[in-house]
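hey so i finally got around to running the thing on that chain from the lab meeting. sorry it took forever, my laptop kept dying and i had to restart like 3 times. anyway pasting the input first so we r on the same page abt which one it is
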Amino acid sequence: MASIEMLSKKENKATFLLKKSSPAYSNALRRIMLTEVPVMAMEDIEIRKNSSAMYDEILTHRLGLIPLTTDLTSYELPKTQADIDEKKAVCTLELTLKEKGPKTVYASDLKSKDPKVKPVYPKMPIVKLLKDQELEIVATAVLGKGKDHAKWSPGHVWYNYSPKITIKKSKDLEKYKDMYPPQIFNKKGEIEEKLILDNNLVDAVANINPEIIKVEYDETEYIFNLESWGQLPPKEMISEALNILNAKLDELNKLI
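ok and heres what got predicted. didnt touch it at all, straight out
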């Protein structure tokens, strides 16, 4: 059975090792994190006033792409379009904005009816209003999936095989030294495995000279790199993706 080992976590970024896996399972997990882990985004936007220089279409597109913090315990995906049209509280949320210039309107100016759902980046600019220009909108945020629109994508995920690096003491090092990235050498001029991994230079050193650095890959272990756009923390993205994937596998098992 596949297992996960967290290697590092920093703010909205995480790196973890997926063990006892396969290319099919690893790629399925990556795709689900990208396209099926649901997050909130503004979907229906009613513009009541807009005397700014920005067209309504551009303004609504910009609002839709503002990342919103998401509470998956309080909201669920809409089952039909009627759920959105009727603004059911279980899958939609209202945000309002009413401002008058001169000022720059930021994401923090959006007022949410739920304090748990708000712009991830308060200082994200929306539009600049000149003197006496006004902007008034009522927006409905909806839980959705990245496969339907990029605004519902929770982040970026990529992976590669877990490498096994063997560094050998070779008399050919001086001959080949200029072919290796300088970042892999410590202050003593020695090659360090940690520097290769930390600088993501495994592929750069793999095929120069196996008598100096030999790189082998384990096809059952995968290093995942995840960057959340901020709607969900990385840990929740991983957990939710695993729940979705396991549910799909259970459903497939029932069908066959």
